[in-house]
Design a protein that fits this description.
single chain; 133 residues; 77% helix; globular
């Protein structure tokens, strides 16, 4: 349980850094790429935190980001709509290694504001269900 609380704090910090770059109104390519990278590390931190939560609180041992999202839907962390968006987010996360492709980078960036909201909600739900703050 202590490990889960440590992970939640890491997600909070990562999400704060992600949100910090998302306030840039018209990002240049460097700022856009920085936002995408902050999305990457925030996503990595939260899905691993959710994996830890599922194991500790639900007794579920899930190994992949999509599996974790589906399990989060099953235990009420996500509703159907959020789970669909989260699965799309995983697809975008998997494509971020190709951000040298300008069109793809712009496309992914265009969805990051929606992902910030989803990630905030995901973290809030994990905190509530884990009995945190």
């Amino acid at each position: 349980m202590e490990r889960l609380q440590e992970r939640i704090i890491m997600v909070e910090k990562a999400l704060q850094r992600f949100k910090e770059i998302m306030v840039v109104k018209e990002p240049n390519s460097i700022e856009r790429d920085a936002a995408i990278q902050r999305f990457e590390f925030t996503f990595e931190a939260i899905w691993k935190t959710a994996k830890n939560f599922l194991y500790d609180f639900e007794g579920l041992d899930v190994g992949s980001p999509k599996g974790v999202i589906r399990a989060c839907r099953e235990v009420g962390v996500f509703n159907d709509e959020q789970a669909i968006l989260a699965l799309e987010m995983v697809n975008d996360r998997n494509l971020t290694v190709h951000t040298y492709n300008e069109e793809l980078a712009i496309d992914i960036y265009s969805r990051l504001k929606d992902y910030v909201i989803l990630l905030e909600n995901w973290l809030d739900q994990l905190r509530k269900k884990a009995g945190g703050h």
